[in-house]
Amino acid sequence: MYNVRTEHERKTVRMIFYPSLLTKQFGNAESQQTLLFKVPKMDHHPEHKDAPEQALADILAAKDLIELFLKMGKAQELNLASLRDRPNTLFEINGISLEGKLIAHLVDEARRGQGYAYAPYSHFNVGAAILAANRAGEQKVFSGCNVENAAYGSTICAERTATFKAVSEGFRKFHAYAVVGGFDQHVSKALRTNTQKSYITPCGSCRQVMNEFEASPCAVIMAKGTGEIYMTTLNYLLPSGFGPRALGVDAADYDGGYANQLAQKK
Ligand SMILES: [Zn+2]
Asked: Model confidence over 197-240: pLDDT tens digits?
């Protein structure tokens, strides 16, 4: 078992977001863009369009929440080598803490998955790994790769391959994802080297699918080919995401499949 500690549950809060007023309030060197970057969960509130004073009052009232979001929005930059040196150290990001050995293991598993990438058209090989838990609380890591298709639209990403592998085995509470990617040997060396230096982030469709099964919060770990790691959380990558709760469903409780299993045993 890995030690995964959740320090606070995700807060779903609606509030007014006025970048210029926030900048005024939090002054200093932070640009509006930085604030936008750091405050992912705020909703723009059109009612306050013509009442900036009221908006500011609301913002001041919500100052503690703003500070919470400023904290939530941060990301950690780590290095694979240093994680291996500190296997039992907990690395905290946006309310979830993962052990160094877990982060390294997920990156290793994502790389193993990348080795099986089927990408004869894009030549872009992606690997993903998820730490997921099942109903009994058992944890397991599932890896995946992108699987392209001659009918391009039938292609599936590595993150979703790993997701569907996990869900189809009864593991649907996801604590952490790792994603790696890069071009294969069939493209120019310059292009290959360039992507080695970049983080590969999950596409929008994968973020949406990940959102369906995330534990709250769920870490997302992106690793460069050069070993640097960028760790954040899914609620930051998909702010205000549309999920089961929007339909009034607590998906974690869905037991249709389990009920069928039990019925068949009788
Ligand atoms: Zn994707």
From this structure: 888 899 999 999 999 998 889 999 999 988 899 999 999 899 88
Cα-based distances in Å from 165 to 12, 25, 65, 158, 207: 29, 47, 37, 11, 16
- Listed in sequence order, the DSSP H helices in the chain are 19-26, 32-38, 52-61, 63-72, 80-85, 100-114, 158-167, 189-196, 204-213, 234-237, 256-265
59 neighbors 51 (Cβ within 8 angstroms): no
Residue pLDDT, tens place only, 61-94:
555 555 544 544 556 778 999 899 999 999 988 8
Query: If you measure from the C-alpha of residue 156 to the centroid of ligand 1, how many angstroms do you get, rounded to a whole number?
Result: 7
Return the sign of the alpha-carbon dihedral for residues 79, 213, 134, 200. negative
Hey, which residues are catalytic here? 159
Cα–ligand 1 centroid distance for 201 (angstroms): 9
- ∠ at Cα 177 (174, 183), nearest 5°? 150
For the entire predicted model, the pTM comes to: 0.73
Cβ atoms 77, 53 nearer than 8 A: no
What is the gyration radius of the CA atoms in the chain, in angstroms? 20
What does DSSP assign to residue 9?
P
Structural domains of the chain, with CATH: 19-72 (no CATH), 76-249 (3.40.140.10)
Q: How far is the CA of 237 from the centre of ligand 1 (A)?
A: 13
